[in-house]
Specification:
- By secondary structure, the chain is of the alpha/beta class.
- It contains 15 helices and 29 strands.
- Helix 12 runs parallel beside helix 14 (about 565-580).
């Protein structure tokens, strides 16, 4: 069946084509196709009218004498254009022991596909083995990006030291019935929530993966509901250039690119930047038992890092395979892809998942100056884009503070851990808290051009407990994931405040709210770039699941009813964001680089204990006061962090009048007041309640 063609109503002309650019490129009278494969014996281009055809409309067999230049297979097809569906079949040696895994009957995606078409016919299981899968396979789509009306949209280029990031899932934001929007769970629905995002005060959304990924990658059912689990987060990439079709309101692969651009344009109009999470460390093809969907069937040994036993994949990603990022063809893919998202889709930056994988050579060894990382950093097209690294991988390569390059920002896992330890009253935490609150220069000291805003500070992210769960659970509860609660970290640094999970105990609930406020207050007053996990501002819970990657359901979705139920937390988060934006003393001049910033720390930040100029760095200490001095015309900010179980009286700097703006020991609305309404502090000290954070603002003389 696979080798026969359906009848086709269109006339086409097949010409040799050109090797560049890679992918499917629309020209005036047709489409040029180009594909890399060094070891292929033959290549077929299959054309389709729609994604559910049982037979291709046309099969074009490429002639290696006419349609191949070096390792690039190419063809020009006159008479087709924008929106046309296509796929490849590539034959060659199947010799796993040599790293070659050609399966000539399998439908393969174009690695440069701008969109991917599929429906209920897509079946991951049928992409395994050796049989053909024309009906059930994924199809690439020809996309002409040239006609879109951006209406003057330009990059916002907001300085990093003025950025507040909101890590968000496209589907999760609006999929819940309480969202009240049409087309829930889509790019279009995100645009409907822009007024909410603006009112919160954040400046950038960081979207979990939006490139085409495989929702079927999980391949098991929930033991609690018996329903099939899906890859919800999106860390199973199949087509890096293609926006995920599952988030398109129309479900039309021919429209998905424009739907994504509509969302970006609307966010930009509201002053919000768009950062996307990119997964260049592995693909959704999994290990040697996985399906053949794209890279494996095109040139396995080029795209993937292989073990000395070439049948097996190196697994630095924890997902079964590792992309061979410093191979020349993969480097080109990554460069072309990031350029495409910036130039054609107008994204403002990238967060690189498990970015340390990109600093390994083809044998998996860490290299000091990774070619691909320097190429990304120095690319003029990407020069205005924000670059954020998760500077570690799943095999223990931890590079935080030592990541290649000068301008990369890094997720600061030390900030997350040290702030959590302090708030839950661990011993020996005060000195580390001081470093985290002032830009983590101890972590980044080896980088001569380090600027404090390159530290992405966070206390929660998609990977782990939500803020509400961090103060409600001592242990993970991931039974719904179907892995016997083995998945997800056990090192949560959480504290349930006395009761595990849901409770009606008023005192426990009050303490949990105070601890949430403490964590947010420290996050929003720390030097660096703060990142807030979407939903934390309304105390969203995942019922103790700290690894909800496969929970495309109410476990992960926003329940918008929480906005009313937890209005006090929402109000506090909004207020802390506004406070941060109002006070330059909490941010850092980007001109202060490296040692200049270290000197500025000594000049513009002072540490205190309950006595002025006497910070208690001892092992048993649980408190610290930090005076962020304002420059000329700027108000100073005084932050008191008391994790002790009793109130402490803190001396205040003399000859300065202070307004108490934040005190987390107080209930809402007294926990945070507008500066114009804030009362002056009487006397020369302030009594900070047990387990609380206080923020004082310098009043005008």
């Amino acid at each position: 069946m696979d080798d026969r063609c359906a009848s086709h109503p269109f006339d086409i002309q097949v010409l040799p084509g050109r090797p560049y650019p890679l992918g499917a490129t629309k020209r005036r009278d047709g489409v040029n196709f180009s594909l890399f494969s060094a070891n292929a014996a033959s290549v077929e281009l299959l054309l389709f009218d729609h994604h559910e055809q049982e037979r291709p409309t046309r099969i074009i067999k490429l002639d290696p004498c006419k349609n191949k230049t070096y390792y690039y297979w190419h063809v020009f097809v006159r008479g087709i254009g924008d929106g046309h569906l296509y796929a490849y079949r590539v034959s060659g040696p199947y010799c796993p022991e040599e790293g070659l895994r050609f399966v000539g009957k399998k439908l393969l995606l174009d690695p440069y596909a701008r969109a991917v078409a599929y429906g209920d016919n897509w079946c991951r299981a049928k992409a395994k083995g050796f049989d053909g899968n024309v009906f059930s396979g994924l199809k690439s789509v020809v996309v002409d990006t040239s006609g879109y009306d951006w209406e003057g949209d330009e990059p916002l280029r907001r300085p990093m030291n003025e950025t507040i990031i909101y890590e968000m899932h496209v589907r999760g934001l609006t999929a819940h019935p309480s969202s009240g929007v049409s087309h829930p769970g889509t790019y279009a629905a995100v645009a409907k929530k822009i007024p909410y995002l603006r009112s919160l005060g954040i400046t950038a959304v960081e979207l979990l993966p939006v490139h085409q990924f495989d929702e079927q990658e999980v391949e098991r059912a929930s033991p609690l509901t018996a329903q099939a689990l899906k890859n919800y987060w999106g860390y199973a990439p199949l087509a890096y250039f293609a926006p995920h079709l599952g988030y398109a309101s129309s479900g039309d692969a021919r429209r998905v690119v424009d739907e994504f651009r509509d969302m970006v344009k609307a966010l930009h109009r509201a002053g919000l930047e768009v950062i996307i999470d990119v997964v260049f460390n592995h693909t959704g093809e999994s290990d040697e038992k996985g399906p053949t969907i794209c890279f494996r069937g095109l040139e396995n040994q080029a795209y993937y890092m292989l073990e000395p036993d070439r049948r097996l994949y190196r697994n630095y990603s924890g997902t079964g395979n590792t992309l061979n990022c410093n191979h020349s063809i993969v480097r080109r893919l990554i460069r072309d892809c990031t350029r495409y998202w910036v130039q054609e889709l107008h994204v403002d930056g990238f967060r690189f998942d498990l970015a340390s994988v990109l600093s390994r050579n083809e044998q998996g060894e860490p290299i000091k100056d990774s070619p691909i990382l320097w190429e990304i950093e120095s690319d003029p097209v990407l020069s205005g884009a924000k670059l954020i690294a998760e500077a570690w991988d799943a095999a223990g390569l931890y590079q935080q503070g030592a990541f290649t390059g000068d301008r990369w920002a890094e997720w600061n896992g030390r900030f997350r851990d040290d702030v959590r330890r302090f708030v839950r009253r661990d011993l020996g935490t005060v000195r580390n808290l001081a470093w985290r609150m002032t830009g983590s220069f101890d972590v980044f000291r080896s980088k001569p051009r380090y600027v404090a805003h390159q530290s992405i500070n966070y206390v929660t992210c998609h990977d782990g407990f939500t803020l509400a769960d961090l103060v409600s659970y001592d242990a993970k509860h991931n039974e719904a994931n179907g892995q016997d609660n083995r998945d997800g970290t056990d090192d949560n640094l959480s504290w349930n405040c006395g009761v595990e999970g849901p409770t009606s105990d008023v005192q426990v609930l009050r303490l949990r709210r105070r601890q949430m406020r403490n964590l947010i207050a420290l996050l929003m007053t720390a030097r660096g770039t703060p990142m807030l996990l979407a939903g934390d501002e309304m105390a969203r819970t995942q019922q103790g699941n700290n690894n909800a990657y496969c929970q495309d359901n109410e476990t992960s979705w926003f329940d918008w009813r929480l906005l009313k139920e937890n209005a006090d937390i929402h109000r506090f988060v909004r207020g802390m964001i506004a406070l941060r934006k109002r006070h330059p003393a909490l941010r850092v001049d980007p001109a202060l680089v490296g040692r200049q910033y270290e000197q500025a720390l000594q000049d513009r930040v002072t540490f205190h204990g309950v006595r002025l100029h006497q910070p208690d760095w001892s092992y048993h200490s649980h408190s610290l006061a930090i005076h962020f001095h304002g420059l000329a015309g700027e108000a100073g900010v005084y932050v008191i962090a008391n994790a002790y179980w009793a109130a402490l009286d803190f001396e205040l700097p003399p000859d300065v009048r202070w307004k108490r703006v934040v005190d987390t020991s107080l209930d809402s609305p007294d926990d945070l007041v507008e500066e114009e309404e804030a009362a002056l502090v009487d006397g020369g000290s302030y009594s900070a309640g047990p387990e609380s954070v206080v923020v004082l603002i310098q009043a005008e003389p």
